[in-house]
Each structure stands twice: as structure tokens, then as C-alpha cells.
Amino acid sequence: MSDRDRLTDILSLEKYLANGYNIATQEASNETLYQSQFQILSSVHQTQRDLFNLMQQKGWYQIEPVEEQKITDKANQFTQDQAQFPYA
Length: 88
Description:
mainly alpha, 3 helices
């Protein structure tokens, strides 16, 4: 197993943990539990970001640049879709 494979596996695990802690934090039954889970969630997010940055630096996580017009088109599409949401 290469370093790239290990970091990809760890990054996937961190994403999975973030998803779980996000739900757990939202459903915390009291403030103390909420604060504890929120701190863990923040730590997991920071670790995930650090891994992402490291992999990008090494060229193992490539992000394809997008044209400005595509961003504008997607933002406009979201605005139109948002108008159809049943809540404000």
C-alpha cells in the first residue's frame, strides 16, 4: 500500500466520521453533549482539510479549474431552483 493509498483511505474515513458527527451533533440531547460533539466535529473537519491540502500539495488530489461562466450558470440555476422550495 502506497502513501497515496493510505492518505486516500484516511481521508475517506475522515469524511465518514464528519458525516456521522454532524448528525450526532445536530441531534444532541443537551448542551454539554452538543458542545463535546461539536468540538470533535470541528477537529475532524480540520484533520480532513489538512489531509486534503497535503494530498493536493503532493499532486494526489487534483481539482479541475472551472470557467467563471459555469459558476455563474450554476448559481443562477440554484437561484431558480430555490424559488421552488416550499420554505423561505
